Amino acid sequence: MSDETERTPLLTPKGKGKAEDDSSMSETAPLLSGSSGTPRYDGERDDPDKASFCCEICRSPQPPPSISGASLAGSHSSHTSLKEKKSSTPWASIISIVVLATLAVCIMLVAFFVPAAVEEYAKQAAVVEPTNLSLESITTNGVRARVQANFKLDGSRVQDPTSRRIGKFTTWIVRALGTEQTKVGVYLPEYNDVLLGTAVVPPLSISIVDGQTTKVDFVAELSPGDAEAYRKVANEWLDGKLDQLKVLGKADIPLKSGILPLGTHAVSEILTFEAKQIPSLPTYNISRLNFRDVPDSDGRSAVGADVAITAFNEYPISLDVPELGFEVLIPNCNSFDPYILVADATTEPLTIRPHAEVTANVSGIIRELPKDLTRVCPNSKSSPLDKFLDQYMHGEAATVYVRGRKVPDSNTPGWVGDILSEIMVPVPFPGQGFDNLIKSFSLTDVNFQLPDPMADPDEDDGNPKVSGTVQVLAGLPKEMNFDINVTNMRATADVMYQHRKLGELNLEKWQAANSTKIEDAKKKEPLLKITSRVENAPLNITDGDVLTDVMQKLLFGGKEVMLDVKAGVDIKVNTALGNLVLKDIPAEGKIPVKPLPGKAIGSVRPQVGDVKIIDTSETSLTLEALVNVTNPTPYSAFVPYVNIHIVKDGTILGSATAENLNVVRGNNTNMVVTAKWDPTTHGDAGRRIASDLISEYLSGRNVTFDVKAHRGTLPSVPIIGEALSKLNITIAAPKLDLPGDGDEEDGKKKGHFIRDATFHVLSSTATFTLVSPLTYNTIYVDWVNATAYYNHTEKVGHILYDLPFAAPPGTSETPRLPVDWSMGSVGYDAVRKAIGGALKLDASANVSVRIGNWRETVWYEGQGIGASIRL
């Protein structure tokens, strides 16, 4: 035979090759090429002057499974059906092709006595067209393969005219050749001549008359060789390192012509299969996928998977595949142990027929989660399971590895498991994007805690904190039919308002959670309702302008403000396999923020009591008081520290500070507030405005002032104070709890610092009953310049007194103040007529008061003061 190698495509749609044997003769066209009237596998038509064998199967854009069986398909279990083919088809196909090629050529060559011419004629004229390859049965030692093909000699393919004439004449004389039973060995010369397999071919008889076609139909006994050979070839091909594969066929062939024996001849033939182009995987469809709880053999719970994969077999190949077993592994981060076994899978017996759909049913079981699977990798925060789930949940193709295994108590021959167990195939595992997994994300029963002023702004305590109930509705894939319970959750969320980022809500600490399966009433889909109570989650405000817009809407808009949330959620899940952590699940939702009720600011109703002066200067007062307020909002808050400015007509008159306040809904009592009154900070204008404000307040008028935030309102988060400073909030001056004040309904008017007066006509003096709002400090009156009126306009008398007197805490009476009567006036006459009785008088006064080192002159206008008239 020729020393020249014959090349045919291995797992490629196109390619040409050469043949080589032990003689000097050459073959100029590919073995198994088409006839002159048929297209070749490279898309061109055969040159009638060239001779080669033809393989119809090779013409397909996709190689037949018998050749491409080394390629195992990917998807959840599509690899299974293709692996089933690999278990028997690759070496069977190669052996069959080698047998056909070897017998066809060698019968021709050895039979003739015109070696050179007839050898060239035989090689170029022989055409073998395989029409079907099927596995009749799988035996304990191998398989019984039925090979069907058409054989003929086509002299027009021979280029040399002399060889063509001699060959036609010789074959016309011989007419037919036959063989006895033959054993063909197939070896891999590039792998130390390791045995790939053997084939026992029954006796054959073929016509060698030019143009006559012989239908070859025989059943060969195929036996696999060394399993290590399959592993090496498969791994090189899977790694993309297999450019070509040389296969050597050897046989001792006994020949005869009719009844004339021609002896036994040793024949060898080398075929080179090209692998420059790897074929695409066949199209498949996962027609059924179901995960469910199943009991393991030892009584423990496990998770089972049932998968049905459908593909179309477009090749003329049929075979019956027995039950096969596989192991499913995922990559490990340990180079010494690169794979982690996670599941066992078993296929049902499978029937494959030519040009028909094939459905592979696979059952798998996951018994436990190995420790290596959940152990965090070195120099990483993720475990192998985390990495796999991250790819899967983000719609990326994760890679699993599939390796064959022996199935206990199975009728499948052991050699099948031996071969499959030597081969590990990477399979792309299509991801399931979880972008729409979480249907809703909401936060209710919200409480706020303002930041600690002593905390570093970069610390969690330096940010406002939010507490509330997180409710998540998660969609469950219909394929997921096993028990699942969410035990913990955490999230990092961007809080948006009108597509602008307000801040970040950081729930980085695990929060306890629970879950309940419910059904979507509209879509009839299973949902998982997850509830978690979040405590003190830091809210980092990143845009003060957005916060200003939100607060304006809440305070003055009168409508609910919807904040958008875009979150990445981590959840801990308890399953039959143990605890799993699913990370960075995308979620979108809304946080409804209820507005303040109508006239909410006016309903705050601050009331001040137990006032204590704790420091004074010539121009300032520092006081401490207990304040009662009504919180009209639906929210509660804890306030470690807050400071606001008291502003009137744009001038800062002082500030108020509160610490460690727990503000609840509704009434809040005895809240300790410290205030500093220092209007001179902004010059004489501030002092005048402050004096008028105090005077109006003492006179019982409805006094209002503005409270404004500033950068120091929340020292650790100046951006919040700056944002709130753009809001103008006007409130009524708080009412003071004065001694002797009754309820609103008792008819006594609150807020009068002069409760009553007594005029002594004969001594021309008057005394006044004063009430002080201070509980611990004495107010001193340094001088008084006052006028009393009757009926609002008629003067009664005038008081001018410049001797200091004290107004201690509680109720007190002034010394007798001299009265200069307005003799002859209507007012004086009214006083005389009321001797022994009482009058309602009005008063107008300028008073200089002093508390500690602080002094101020104020005016007072009072109406309806009850005055007793005495002689």
Automatic annotation (TrEMBL):
<feature type="domain" description="Tag1-like fifth Ig-like">
    <location>
        <begin position="748"/>
        <end position="859"/>
    </location>
</feature>
<dbReference type="InterPro" id="IPR055011">
    <property type="entry name" value="Tag1_C"/>
</dbReference>
<dbReference type="InterPro" id="IPR059065">
    <property type="entry name" value="Ig_Tag1-like_4th"/>
</dbReference>
<dbReference type="InterPro" id="IPR059066">
    <property type="entry name" value="Ig_Tag1-like_5th"/>
</dbReference>
<feature type="compositionally biased region" description="Low complexity">
    <location>
        <begin position="67"/>
        <end position="80"/>
    </location>
</feature>
<protein>
    <recommendedName>
        <fullName>Pre-rRNA processing protein</fullName>
    </recommendedName>
</protein>
<feature type="transmembrane region" description="Helical">
    <location>
        <begin position="91"/>
        <end position="114"/>
    </location>
</feature>
<dbReference type="GO" id="GO:0000329">
    <property type="term" value="C:fungal-type vacuole membrane"/>
</dbReference>
<dbReference type="InterPro" id="IPR046368">
    <property type="entry name" value="Tag1"/>
</dbReference>
<dbReference type="Pfam" id="PF26174">
    <property type="entry name" value="LEA-2_1"/>
</dbReference>
<keyword id="KW-0812">Transmembrane</keyword>
<keyword id="KW-0472">Membrane</keyword>
<feature type="region of interest" description="Disordered">
    <location>
        <begin position="1"/>
        <end position="48"/>
    </location>
</feature>
<feature type="region of interest" description="Disordered">
    <location>
        <begin position="65"/>
        <end position="84"/>
    </location>
</feature>
<feature type="domain" description="Tag1 C-terminal">
    <location>
        <begin position="480"/>
        <end position="594"/>
    </location>
</feature>
<dbReference type="Pfam" id="PF22786">
    <property type="entry name" value="Tag1_C"/>
</dbReference>
<feature type="domain" description="Tag1-like fourth Ig-like">
    <location>
        <begin position="605"/>
        <end position="720"/>
    </location>
</feature>
<dbReference type="Pfam" id="PF26150">
    <property type="entry name" value="LEA-2_4"/>
</dbReference>
<keyword id="KW-1133">Transmembrane helix</keyword>
<dbReference type="Pfam" id="PF26153">
    <property type="entry name" value="LEA-2L_5"/>
</dbReference>
